[in-house]
Amino acid sequence: MRMNKKEIHLHYTTLHLTEADRETQDLVQEAQRAASRAHAPYSKFKVGAALLLSDGTIITGSNQENAAYPSGLCAERVALFQVGHLCNGQSIRKAAIAVPHVMGEQIIPPCGACLQVFAEYRNAQDSEIQVILANGSGHLLVAPDISTFLPFSFTNKHLSSD
């Protein structure tokens, strides 16, 4: 059997925070503020997330570590689970994730577990979630949708309905 060759093209833009629109700048600043509230005594790796909802509400989260490492939670999931609990029915328009202590041009993406949770929310709302990754130097990577980072996500469509 011969399979058709398929290619994946990643769509994203890189720019500096000063070049972004006001809404994006404000969302990144909220993510940076959230990072300052991270509980990261072990890794010292502080991350903040800010989610802009369809009604204009911004929900934030920061990573929360625990001495038993698997018991902690990433900033993205802290924010996403708040949306699921507090804002039922609102869709997520944009997500800003900030890692303020990373300088230079390096951009840190969400971990695989966070990407999977993002994919679940994106699938449930059936609309794109723009993702903005920010570092401490003001460098941004802007992707039109979470699928840029996880093009082959596992969703409820893969579960058997039997």
TrEMBL record:
One of its GO terms (biological process) is nucleobase-containing small molecule metabolic process. GO terms for cellular component: cytosol. Residues 22-143 form the CMP/dCMP-type deaminase domain. It comes from the Bacteria. One of its GO terms (molecular function) is zinc ion binding. Pfam families: dCMP_cyt_deam_1. Gene3D superfamilies: Cytidine Deaminase, domain 2. Belongs to the cytidine and deoxycytidylate deaminase family. PANTHER family: CYTIDINE DEAMINASE (PTHR11644). NCBIfam families: PRK05578.1 (NF004064). This is Cytidine deaminase. It comes from Thermaurantimonas aggregans.
